[in-house]
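Person: Please work through this fold.
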Amino acid sequence: MSIVEDRPVRPAERPPTPQPVPNTTLRERTAELNALQEQVLRGPSDRATEAQHAKGKLTARERVALLFDEGTFVEIEGLRRHRATGFGLEDKKPHSDGVVIGWGTVHGRTVFTYAHDFRIFGGALGEAHAEKIHKVMDLAEAAGAPVVGLCDGAGARIQEGVSALAGYGGIFQRNVRNSGVIPQISVMLGPCAGGAAYSPALTDFVFMVRGTSQMFITGPDVVRSVTGEEISQNGLGGADVHAAVSGVAAFAYDTEESCLEDVRHLLSMLPSNNRELPPVAPADDPADRRCERLLDLVPSQANQAYDMRRVIEEIVDHGDFFEVHGQWAQNVVCGLARLDGRVTGIVANQPAVLAGVLDIESSEKAARFVQFCDAFSIPLVTLVDVPGFLPGVDQEHGGVIRHGAKLLYAYCNATVPRISLVLRKAYGGAYIVMDSRSIGADVALAWPSNEIAVMGAEGAANVIFRREIAAADDPAEMRAQKIKEYTTELMHPYYAAERGLVDDVIDPADTRGRLIAALAMLRTKHVPLPGRKHGNLPL
């Protein structure tokens, strides 16, 4: 657990806590209460607030105000104080103990939150601080509502010793118990070091802000002393590092305001818990809208790149696609959108990056997203244009088999409505893994540009006809002839449909309407699961 500097409260900068005077009236007691509550709302001192703003950071309550609908936040345990003694703590007992907890509404639906107050003990977690977080997480579980952590604290309060560490254990245990039960979102708005970083890692989505939020297990000083490597805090665990390199963060933003705005947007697309369906928006984009632009967006030649995001935006309601992990493993695109007003999870290969191949990171990214959607009853649409798995020694030694199996497992285990659509290439094992009919897709569609096969025609011809090609007077001509022969026999656009592996080959312009119709048909899908404690995901 990281060591954090104690930010002492300066009692001289705030009036002392009002003490009840004997024989006062209820009105006088209420006036005392109001004065005390006002003091709690202002925080430990004006100087501490100025220091927080000087770092480009908002205070805990300013963040809470941005997260919730105006005037709806209800704080609890604002008067809580720690009971620790030693190391001067008995003289420093600020109200709230460095964390604001409570509930309010986001777009009219109940959401719970805890927000670290960096102005008090640097946001460090002590026993009372942890108990407050435990309480709000338990309330969120009982109410069946999302919980959002606004994180701005560097670790355990070292003056409280092992009691602080035990507090983290209680948070982790609740993170796991609520996983797949209520949405859990972590918003990193400051430092998060040591074991404290594991709570965000256990939640569904991690948001970070550039320049002010960092996450790492061991900080730059420890790295320097152990390995000799010189690196800054942002270089080690900043927002862009975790959004683009490690994959820990799903989103990265330049400002807290834009970050919290997107947290609100994400919450508007999620159900409150796993017993509810996602909220439905007005269906004001015609379900039968033809998508003629798709005929020009996607090149018919399999080796030409295009941006799959443009395809998705053409299909979904009003082109509104909320991408998840947009900077990491970009050869796969994952995100949420609405089709006819209903939230849908979309997984798609990205031909503009590495030709859309599957590799270690993209398999893990897509698997986690599929699992999330399945946990919260969000149907899945998979857009397939995949040439295979990425070959290479690094991939094989890095466990591409194991990581690819995660995506395969996630799809096979998913019971939500599943629709797959092959746009162009669908080769080999990668085709199977991308929610093919053979692993349980409810509806399998394809465009007339589809090529579903074990491998590309050129590679297949080189394997099957290698002797004929080698013995030919003109090997190049013979190879071209055999490639054409293989394509004609096994890779024409209706081959899979003739064998029932694709339900229909459709006009690309009809894609939106066909997807919406299939999703409507599957809305009451129910799949009984075998009796078991849980499966053994290939971690």
Remarks:
- The mean pLDDT is 90.
- Residues 26-42 form the longest helix (17 residues).
- The first strand starts at residue 74 and ends at 76.
